[in-house]
Write a structure and sequence with these properties.
alpha/beta, Rossmann fold, two-stranded antiparallel ribbon, 15% strand
Length: 214
């Protein structure tokens, strides 16, 4: 898998940081004895580890689709697709309105456990809920003339997408979510930066408030 790296560490940075660590340790030994020297060296090494982690390579997810590839659409839905308004929004965003449109469509729902399920390490209920949501989503789309198959994925959305794209070469990815706000928007942006095929979010109303879509 290709790696997406951020060009923040230059080739001369590691030797310079190492010299700074050694210099701080020597200064600590000279000025405060072995105790201060060891403490100073330890703190510097911790800082070095943090810098290395912050600048570690970021794995990209999926592969760049070939321009002439047939459409293969991955719909990642964290909420069930169960009303006409959401289906209409999907059809509009994904451009499925024409009879001539041919695409292989797969719906992926992460198995997201509740707090008690996670505490009890019981993912069975989470997978059952995800399967139920998938049945609803596939049936709703089928009533609108859209055929799709369905998979349950990992509880982590990014990991679920990565696992799915390892066997399903999607040409485009759509994330259907009811989560809104700055944190949710930033999470989508970070995910879009990692996913190689174009990823577009589709914000819908929560299941309990489905008079329309956002």
């Amino acid at each position: 898998m290709a790696l997406a790296t951020v060009d923040r560490v230059k080739s001369w940075h590691p030797p310079l940081i190492l010299l700074a660590v050694l210099g701080a340790a020597v200064a600590g030994f000279v000025l405060g004895g072995p105790g201060l020297g060891i403490t100073t060296a330890g703190l510097c090494l911790v800082g070095l580890v943090v810098v290395a982690l912050l600048n570690s390579p970021i794995e990209s997810i999926g592969r760049m689709p070939h321009p002439e590839s047939a459409r293969r659409i991955l719909i990642v839905s964290t909420v069930p697709i169960e009303d006409a308004g959401t289906v209409a929004r999907l059809a509009d965003e994904i451009d499925l309105g024409g009879a001539a449109v041919e695409a292989e469509i797969r719906i992926l729902t992460p198995a997201r456990p509740g707090f008690l399920d996670r505490w009890a390490t019981d993912l069975r209920k989470a997978r059952e809920r995800a399967q139920r949501d998938l049945v609803i989503s596939v049936a709703t789309l089928a009533l609108s003339g859209v055929t799709a198959d369905a998979h349950v994925g990992d509880e982590d959305v990014g990991q679920a997408i990565e696992d799915e794209l390892s066997e399903f070469d999607a040409t485009e990815v759509y994330l259907v979510t009811a989560e809104t706000g700055p944190e949710a928007d930033q999470a989508v942006l970070r995910l879009a930066d990692r996913v190689v095929p174009p990823l577009r979010p589709i914000h819908v109303s929560p299941p309990g408030d489905r008079n329309g879509v956002d």
